[in-house]
Each structure stands twice: as C-alpha cells, then as structure tokens.
Amino acid sequence: MRRLLYIWRKNRLTIFIVVTLLALIYISPLLWMLNTSLRPTWDIYRFPPTIIPRKITLENYIYVLTQMSGFGRYFLNSVVVTFSTVILVLIASAMGGYAFGVRRFRGQNLLFTGVILVLTIPYIMYLIPIYMMEDKLGLQNNWLGLILPYVALNLPWGLLIMRGAFSTIPLDIRDAAIIDGCNEFQLWFRVMLPITKPALAATTIITFVFAWQEYMFASTLMTKNQWQTLPVGIVWLRDELQTLVYGRIGAMVVLTIVPVFILFLAFRNFFIKGLSEGMLKG
Amino acid sequence: MRRRAAGIQVVFAALSFLEIRKAVISQRRKRYIRDRLNLLIFLLPTIFFVFVFIAFPIGYSAYLSLTEYNYARDSAPKFIGFRGYIHTLFHDVFFHDALLNQVKFAIPYFIATFTFSLGLAILINELVFGTRFFQVLFYLPMIIPLSLVGIIFAWVLAPDIGIFDHILRWMGVKNWNIDWFGNPYTAIYCLAIARSWKMIGFTLIIFLAGLQAIPRELREAAKVDGANFLQEIFKVVLPNLKPYLLIGGIWILINSIKTFELPAVVTEGGPGTSTLTLYLYSWKLAFERLDMGRASQVAYITAAIILVLSWVLNRIFRPETARRA
Questions:
Q1: Does residue B325 register a pLDDT over 90?
Q2: What is the SS3 assignment for B291?
Q3: Which residues of A touch B152 (CB under 8 A)?
Q4: Per DSSP, what are the bridge partners of residue A128?
Q5: Mean pLDDT of chain B
Q6: What are φ and ψ of residue B116, in 5° steps?
Q7: Does B9 have pLDDT greater than 80?
Q8: Looking at the complex, does the CB of residue A236 fall below 8 Å from at least one CB of chain B?
Q9: What pLDDT is stored for residue A40 in this prediction?
Q10: Are residues B115 and B46 located together in one domain of the fold?
C-alpha cells in the first residue's frame, strides 16, 4: 500500500516536471522577444547570439514611446476601434440574446443557426463585398469603417454566449416582474441584465481579444497609414525600418500585448468559460 | 310595450356584449402588435449587422463569383456563369499551388495542434497543483495577434542570429544554416508550427472541458481493475472524450484554412508560391489584381472545402457520439 502511494506521488511529480518543461519550451519564443526588447541594439546583433543579456535597458521602450509617433497613433486607433466594437457588440448581443433566449418566435432556430454558421465561413467572402461597399460609401480610412464589420464578425460569439445566459433564467422571474408592472424593456434592463453579468463579462473579453488582434480587415479597409491598428501598423513599421531594429519591434510587440494581457488576467475565467461554451456549441 | 322594452334590452345587451368583445379583441390585438414590435426592436441590431455585413456580402460574392469583374477597369460585373469556376478549378496553376500548399500546411498543423494539446490536457488534468498557472501560460498565445506571432517566429527562426539556429549549433548541428522562412521547402511547415503555437490554447480549452466532464468513478474503477496510466488513458479517457475530440478537430480544420496573417506578414506567399495559401491567394486576387470575380470563386471553393471537411468529420464520428449521448 505504502509503495503504491509512493509510486502515485512520484508519478505526479514526473508529470509536473514534464509539464513545466513543455511550458518552458512553449513560451520560449515569447520570452525571447521580451529578452530582445530589453537589450541595446549592439547586444542583440552580436554573433554568436547569447541568451543572457549583457546589459538590460529600457531604451527601446523609451524610443518607441517618445520617438515613434506612428506607434502612438496606431495605439489610439486600436483603442478606439476595439472599445467601440466591444460596446456595440455588448448592446447588440444583449438585446439579441434576450430575443433568442427568452422569447419564442417563428424562424427563430433558422435565424440563429444562420448566425452561428457565420463562424465557419471564410471571412474573405465578406471582405470583398464589404470593401466595395465601403469604397462606395466612403467609409474607408475612418474608424467607423472598421468598427461596423468588427461588430458583425464578433456578434455571433456574443449571441451564443448571451442566449445561453438568458435561456437559463427561470421564467418565474419574468412573470413576477410582469405582475409587478414592468414593461418588457424594464424587464430586460432592470431584471434580466443584472443576472447575465458573467455572460456580459465573457462577451466583453472575447470581443476585446478578437478585435484587438484582427489583421485582414484592418489591412485591407484602412489603406492610409494613419488609420492602421496595432497588428497592421507594427508590420508596416517593420517593413519601413528594415531588419536591424528588432529591439524596437520587440518593445512594440510587448507594448501591444500588455493591455490585452492585463484584461485577460483579470477576466480569464470568463474568457475560458465563454470560449468553451461558444466552441462546444458552435 | 313591456315585450318591446325587453326586446330592446336584449338588443342592447347583445350590442354591449359585442362592444366589449371588440374592445377585448382590439386590446389583445394591440398587445400582440406591441409584443411583436418589442421583439423586433430587440432583434433590430442583430438583424442590421447580420444582414448588412454578413448576409448581403455572402449573397453578393456568390453573384460576383459567377461574373468577370475587374474592380479598377470594369464599370459593372459581367455575368459568365460557371465558366469562371471551371477555369479556376482546372486551369489556374496558382490555384493548384495554393491548394497543395494548404494541404501541406494543414497536415503538420493538425497533427501538431491535436497531439500537443491533447497530451497537455491529459497531463494538466493530472496535476495536483499549479493547474491554473499552467492553463494561463498555455492560453497566453491566444491573445497575441497572429501578425505579431509571425514577427516573433521570424525573429526566433532568423538565419544566423536567430536563437533557434544558435541552439542547433550549440547542440552540434553545425552546417545546416537554413533560412527557415526563406527556403521553399521549409517555409510552409514553419508557418504551420507558428500557427499551431497560437491555436493550441483553444483546443486545450475544449479538451480540458471534456476531461473534466468524465466522471471520476469511471477512472477510479479502471484503476481498481488494475489498469496502468496508459491503459487508463487509452481505454477509458479517450473513448469518453470522443465528442470533444471531434469538436476540437473541426475547429483546428476550420482554422487551418483561415490562414492569412502569417503568410501575408512573414513570407508574402513566397519564396515563389511556396506559402501561397487559399486565403492569401483569394486576397491577392481581390486586392492586388482587383479581380473580384476570381477572388470570389476562390473564396467560395474554400468555403465549400471547409463545409465538406467538417461534414465528413462529423459523419465519421457521429454514430459514436450519438450512441454515447
């Protein structure tokens, strides 16, 4: 018995060590980028390369934040576009989620399946007509031109999550609210929305993460440099600066990841729950 | 006289009854209309976004795919029916390259993502402590934009000064000196690895959810019956995980075709056409050559491939899942 227990424990320890090693290998590209961003340029381009930096500085970060006006602009664009997208998706999916989760109407399932199917269709199929449409309407090269398609692309996730949340609310609550004299909007806003707060949080974080990293729409619809978001802008900067500035590019990469990383840490349980719910149903 | 009065009263009663009914009906009807109107208001944002930015584009690109339309030159699309599809499918050399590259990309990508995340999920599920920490760590690449993943990998795999080559040299592989992304034989596989680096988190979520759904007693019973760890995994855990494996597999497949950022950022389809994927090809047709008709054809063929593949996967695994559920 004792021996069995011993082996069991030993097994756990081996597993722990294996997972730690895998995690180290797995995360090493990111660590290497972080490492690069903290070194002065002469240290980065030494041959042969060294893993441990000879000197740690923040000069790359300072340079990016003070000298590169493009980066600030991209950051602003990303923030504006992402926040507007999140807010619009929240409103639309909270309303739509209520309609799909609480109400019953003809064509409900068909409409919902259609919305979900969107997740599997290649985005390029929307991109071509949307590009032509925005070209005609003059929506290119402004924030709105990016926000509207982003809302449409992220809405299916939000609807999936919000419908799930609304459909678990017991109908007694609804009846009680109606007897108390609520009209439907009060019922939705005052009574039901507070209950779905976790789902709203999940929608927020998922939409934020997706909108923050979108590349294809941003690179196509925004043709002028000053309207680019971060994922595209950094690539442009890289092409502009050519190769010998990986320290600065590293700093930009890290600065791009940090805001979304903080949000991710704060909301990670909602993120995971929302994603797994969405993926398992989708 | 009295009779007449009674008659009038009856008429009045009937009239008032009808009146009340009418009132009730109209009230009910009003409520019904109000109800529908409310529903419509709730659905309005969804309908607006879905129809304007999803349904209309799908329909319009379906139409475009049946036309010949150069966005810069032609004033309106010219309808040519299915001739465009036939040309793309059978005579377009670049399309064949893109299709082949897609397969070359998808196979290592699928295998790497699937096995690695499944193995990790099983291992992480066994951990006694540190589960949360490792979960966060493996989910981390999910929040990194794909274009930046491309930049990161381009730096790690850079020739000569890249750390990967350095580690190879340190391990004794002296004269490989491969330009990983500049070499037509390796570039697509390196992209596949980079893509799967980011994807692993997603499938890990699915598989962990599946593992946690397996009842403890089942595995305890297997242990009592004398199964060792591997037997337990293969005989008890994996069969029970099948629906989740299916979902994970479909997600990996769908995402393997949605590959645009990495080849666009790191290799731009090159060297030659060695990393030209279907997505990138369609994008290049549309926004470099402004040939919207052919771009839509490629997009539609891509969508058809995705649908057929997920349907086939579903067919292969469905009976098992149905029986279990």
A1: no
A2: strand
A3: 29-30, 32-33, 253
A4: none
A5: 82
A6: -65, -45
A7: no
A8: no
A9: 82
A10: no
B28-71 tens-digit pLDDT: 888 888 888 888 888 888 888 888 888 888 888 889 888 888 88
3-state secondary structure of B79: strand
Residues near B235 by beta carbon (within 8 Å), at least 6 away in sequence: B222, B227
Residue A137: count of CB within 10 angstroms of its CB: 10
Would you state the pLDDT for residue B318?
A: 61
Q: What is the mean pLDDT of residues B119-129?
A: 84
* Minimal Cβ distance to B163: which of A49, A155, A188: A49
Do residue B155 and residue A246 have CB atoms under 8 angstroms apart? Answer: yes
A131 and A10 fall within a common domain = no
CATH number at residue A140: 1.10.3720.10
Residue (of B147, B255, B48) closest to A151 by Cα position: B48
Q: Is A118 within 8 Å of B50 when comparing Cβ atoms?
A: yes
Show Cβ contacts of residue B246 under 8 Å, excluding neighbours closer than 6 positions.
B313, B314, B317, B321
ipTM: 0.86
Suggest the residue from A125, A159, A263 to mutate for an interface test with chain B (most B CBs closer than 10 A): A125
Residue B3: the pLDDT is 60
Shared domain for A7 and A86, answered yes or no, is no
Partner residue facing B279 (CB), from A32, A124, A188: A124
The structure's pTM equals: 0.85
Quick check: A279 contacting B, CB < 8 Å? yes
Closest CA to A229 of A79, A65, A67, A63: A79
Q: What is the pLDDT of residues A216-258, one digit of tens each?
A: 888 888 888 888 888 888 888 887 776 567 888 888 889 999 9
Q: Are residues B31 and B154 located together in one domain of the fold? A: no
CB contacts of A256 in chain B (<8 Å) are 145, 148
CB contact under 8 A, A215 and B295: no
**Cα A231 from chain centre:** 12
Tell whether B307 lies on the interface with A, counting CB pairs under 8 A: yes
Listed ranges A271-280, B169-178, B235-244; the one with the highest mean pLDDT: B235-244
DSSP per residue, B153-171: HHHHT-TTTSHHHHHHHHT
**Do A204 and A84 belong to one domain?**
yes
The closest CB to that of A148, out of B53, B130, B286, belongs to B53
Q: Report d(CA A81, CA A208) in Å as an integer.
A: 10
Q: Do B310 and A120 touch (CB under 8 A)?
A: yes
Q: Omega of the bond prior to B108 within 30 degrees of 0, cis?
A: no
- Look-up of token digits 């005052």: A190
Print the domain residue range for A237: 66-281
Domain of residue B131: give its range. Answer: 87-324
